[in-house]
């Protein structure tokens, strides 16, 4: 008989099982009591070095340990004890100094001590300004919270609202972006936030900035006043108005690097170089060619700039994988690009400020600021993408001679140590001719270049800090030529807004795609002098190229006539078509691109000569409306007809034959019958829905029970990951059941390389020679098949 049980674990007797259970429960209760006591006793001034010295639960400690976090960073050792005691916190520390854990550990612990369960609803809300950063925070939460049983979710848009809606109500911790969160608070009925204990704003100064003002204020309106609030940023402000807006109670200002001699990490080497605008692309290309083995981020001021530089450099094949990222890309593409850049050893990413804050790309060697940042804070966040957590890093700021004095002054005021360097003449590369050829042969690229140029020039004009940005003094003509463009697109600048406001304004508002109806176009002004390029572009590529070119010209003409923004609806910042009403200037969270507005006739730039855009706009709209009305009155309305099987036309709704109608009973009877039938149908559908919901609930319950049973039996590590069950990445789930990012087996995409190094080629040849068995790739193309066929015949 004994052999029958061999190899099987003997089940504990029921009595022993209950004892084990109650013992476990007692242990948990004791731990809670001890923690509450320890926190009350905790001396916030004591130097705490290791996480193991903190009064935190074994569950969090285990998660931290499994994630290899042992010692606390400065901001963590100062902020965590205060936060554990429930204090409101204003946390400021340099980039890459570990602020994320400084708020995540207290979030987990404070809920744990309160024995928070699914039934208690939302306990903590963490707001991030961008989707990428929210995802990153969520990943860290998943890592350190992996042994907790809280449910946690990521609410950043980009997936179905309904899908999120169904699970929002059961989440304990949410990481979100402001816009999407507000949407749920306003529209998701089952979503309750009355119990909320903690609100965290990462990159708080950015979130409190005008771009998110309306959303954040509205979110805070929904939240209970009695809560703990924590704000973190490398460029934290103590603006009283902000504190009042968030109802902070007697906040503790935790600034660990305030007394430091610099606002940036000590391991960061910072340089600037003077390169006149028309030389900028040459210098950048030379830099990239000289650093093919490095990991580089290049910051530009707008998505259009990013696209143009990426596309043109791609054609030039510098010999390093190139990537690009801006707020206009699809969410999946953005995610793919960020993870590819994270995983790469050497690559160069061209990006807007969408990646300037918070993102923790591993081992970035260089941060290049090709376009001057709008202010010193943006500079600090951009360079903070390198030299993170004790690593070294280097940053170079490209400045036009006109920007040098103003920018250096701003950086000095913010305690940013920066040194001038010069470009080695032998490293300079002239790519102007190549770009010119490329633009000539590829109309798409030329069109992109024109938009990038316009966007850049306008961003200069709209920048607030006129001590740095002097649009009238820079060589825009030379810049256009350096991009390979046939002359500088004509731009007309107008007063009335600033770049920051436009950058932060919601996309929807800026996209006010007023259809510039043909009827509205003013007659073309008198024949202009045609340049060599005009003639050239008309001759070549008649179909495609001249299409783009005339579009550009046509847009110019419309705007010349109207005296206002770009008609291109893709052109987010080229449409300063209306001044946003006060309080209506919130931003879509990922619309971080800088950018600019308004095209027009004069090659010469004379700021301040035009009228206020809002006046022009309303007049134009009025005119457009009038002409549309006129058109409508002339046209008359169309009538929709339907055809029967014999091809006879009928009105869409025809009155039924009265006799036939009467035969079916009185109108009242028919209405009652209709209602009855519909009610029965709804009841039936309802039953089906309920049944489905019940089944789902039952399945969930079973899964949860299984997991709890496994936990109780001390088999934490064997808990089946949610992925095994749902077969899908789930941004809303129990922390304990979420798979770890580094455990996920992503199919590693092979990096595209423009050139191979000699060493690599040699290595590959050597490997091939040493192979005994030759493997043949599956034929993919026609050429492959032909080659294969030829081989077989031989
Ligand atoms: N206690 C710690 N021990 C070891 N590494 C840590 C610790 N805390 C944080 N780190 C690591 O330091 C890096 C930077 O952390 P984090 O992203 O939190 O910085 P940050 O201060 O929020 O930066 P930013 O201001 O740019 O948002 C991360 O890679 C993180 O894993």
Can you identify the CATH class of the domain at 29-255?
Alpha Beta
Mean model confidence by pLDDT: 76
CATH superfamily of the domain at 29-255: P-loop containing nucleotide triphosphate hydrolases
Distance between the termini: 69 Å
- CATH level-3 fold name of the domain at 29-255: Rossmann fold
User: What integer value in Å does the Rg equal?
Assistant: 32 Å
Task: Provide the helix percentage.
Answer: 40-55%
Number of helices, counting only DSSP H or I runs of 4 residues or more: 28
The hetero molecules present are: adenosine-5'-triphosphate
Structural class: alpha/beta
Q: What layout of secondary structure does this protein have?
A:
Elements: H1 14-41, H2 58-66, H3 74-84, E1 89-92, H4 99-113, E2 124-127, H5 131-144, E3 151-155, H6 161-168, E4 173-176, H7 178-187, E5 198-202, H8 204-207, H9 213-222, E6 228-233, H10 240-245, E7 252-255, E8 268-274, H11 280-290, E9 295-299, H12 303-316, E10 322-325, H13 331-343, E11 347-351, E12 366-369, H14 376-383, E13 393-399, H15 401-413, E14 419-420, H16 432-441, H17 443-462, H18 476-482, H19 499-504, H20 507-510, H21 532-539, H22 544-562, H23 613-635, E15 641-643, E16 649-651, H24 658-663, H25 667-712, H26 722-726, E17 732-734, H27 758-770, H28 782-793
Parallel strand pairs: 1-6, 1-7, 2-4, 2-5, 3-4, 5-6, 8-13, 8-14, 9-11, 9-12, 10-11, 12-13
Antiparallel strand pairs: 3-17, 15-16
The structure holds adenosine-5'-triphosphate.
Adenosine-5'-triphosphate is lined by residues 69, 71-73, 76, 93, 95-101, 234, 358, 360, 384, 388-389.
């Amino acid at each position: 008989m004994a052999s029958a049980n061999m190899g099987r674990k003997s089940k504990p007797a029921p009595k022993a099982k209950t004892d084990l259970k109650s013992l476990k429960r007692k242990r948990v209760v004791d731990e809670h009591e001890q923690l509450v006591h320890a926190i009350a006793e905790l001396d916030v001034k004591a130097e705490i070095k290791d996480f193991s010295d903190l009064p935190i639960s074994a569950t969090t400690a285990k998660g931290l340990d499994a994630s290899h976090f042992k010692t606390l960073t400065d901001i963590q050792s100062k902020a965590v004890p205060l936060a554990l005691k429930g204090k409101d916190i204003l946390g400021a520390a340099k980039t890459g100094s570990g602020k994320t854990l400084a708020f995540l550990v207290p979030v987990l612990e404070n809920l744990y001590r309160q024995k928070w369960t699914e039934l208690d609803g939302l306990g903590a809300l963490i707001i991030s300004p961008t989707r990428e950063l929210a995802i990153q925070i969520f990943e860290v939460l998943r890592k350190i919270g992996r042994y907790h049983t809280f449910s946690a979710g990521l609410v950043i848009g980009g997936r179905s609202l309904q899908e999120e809606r169904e699970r929002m109500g059961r989440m304990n911790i949410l990481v979100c972006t402001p816009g999407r969160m507000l949407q749920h608070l306003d529209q998701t009925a089952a979503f309750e936030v009355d119990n909320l204990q903690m609100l965290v704003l990462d990159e708080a100064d950015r979130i409190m900035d005008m771009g998110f003002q309306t959303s954040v204020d509205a979110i805070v309106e929904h939240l209970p006043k009695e809560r703990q609030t924590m704000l973190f940023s490398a460029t934290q402000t103590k603006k009283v108005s902000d504190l009042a807006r968030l109802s902070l109670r007697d906040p503790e200002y935790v600034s660990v690097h305030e007394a430091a001699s610099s606002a940036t990490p000590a391991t960061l080497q910072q340089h600037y170089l003077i390169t006149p605008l028309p030389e900028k692309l040459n210098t950048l290309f030379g830099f990239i060619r000289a650093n093919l083995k490095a990991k580089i981020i290049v910051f530009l001021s707008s998505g259009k700039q990013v696209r143009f530089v990426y596309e043109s450099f791609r054609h030039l094949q510098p010999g390093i994988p190139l990537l690009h990222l801006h707020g206009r890309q699809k969410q999946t593409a953005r995610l793919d690009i960020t993870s590819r850049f994270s995983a790469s050893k050497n690559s160069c990413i061209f990006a807007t400020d969408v990646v300037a804050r918070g993102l923790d790309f591993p081992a970035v060697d260089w941060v290049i600021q090709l376009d001057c940042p709008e202010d010193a804070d943006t500079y600090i966040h951009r360079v903070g993408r390198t030299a993170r957590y004790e690593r070294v890093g280097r940053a170079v700021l490209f400045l036009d001679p006109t920007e040098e004095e103003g920018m250096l002054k701003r950086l000095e005021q913010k305690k940013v140590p920066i040194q001038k360097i010069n470009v080695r003449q032998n490293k300079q590369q002239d790519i102007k001719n190549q770009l010119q050829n490329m633009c000539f042969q590829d109309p798409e690229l030329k069109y992109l270049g024109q938009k990038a140029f316009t966007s850049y020039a306008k961003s200069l004009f709209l920048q607030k800090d006129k001590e740095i940005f002097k649009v009238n003094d820079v060589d825009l003509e030379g810049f256009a030529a350096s991009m390979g463009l046939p002359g500088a697109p004509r731009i007309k600048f107008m007063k009335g807004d600033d770049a920051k406001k436009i950058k932060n304004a919601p996309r929807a508002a800026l996209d006010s795609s007023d259809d510039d109806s043909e009827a509205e176009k003013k007659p073309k002004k008198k024949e202009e002098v045609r340049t060599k390029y005009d003639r050239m572009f008309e001759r070549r590529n008649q179909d495609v190229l001249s299409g783009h070119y005339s579009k550009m010209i046509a847009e110019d003409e419309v705007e010349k006539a109207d005296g206002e923004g770009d008609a291109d609806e893709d052109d987010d910042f080229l449409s300063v078509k209306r001044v946003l009403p006060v309080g209506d200037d919130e931003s879509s969270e990922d619309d971080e691109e800088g950018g600019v507005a308004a095209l027009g006739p004069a090659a010469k730039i004379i700021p301040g000569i035009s009228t206020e855009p809002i006046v022009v706009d309303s007049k134009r709209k009025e005119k457009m409306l009038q002409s549309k009305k006129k058109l409508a009155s002339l046209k008359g309305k169309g009538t929709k007809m339907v055809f029967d099987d014999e091809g006879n036309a009928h009105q869409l709704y025809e009155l039924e034959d009265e006799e036939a109608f009467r035969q079916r009973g009185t109108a009242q009877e028919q209405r009652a019958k209709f209602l009855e039938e519909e009610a029965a149908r709804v009841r039936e559908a309802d039953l089906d829905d309920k049944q489905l919901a019940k089944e789902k609930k039952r399945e969930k319950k079973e899964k949860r029970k299984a997991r709890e049973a496994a936990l109780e039996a001390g088999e934490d590590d064997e808990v089946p990951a949610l992925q095994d069950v749902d077969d899908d990445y789930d941004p809303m789930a129990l922390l304990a059941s979420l798979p770890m990012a580094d455990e996920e087996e992503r199919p590693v995409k092979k990096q595209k390389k423009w050139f191979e190094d000699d060493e690599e080629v040699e290595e590959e040849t050597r490997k091939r020679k040493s192979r005994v068995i030759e493997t043949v790739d599956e034929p993919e193309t026609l050429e492959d098949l032909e080659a294969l066929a030829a081989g077989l015949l031989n």
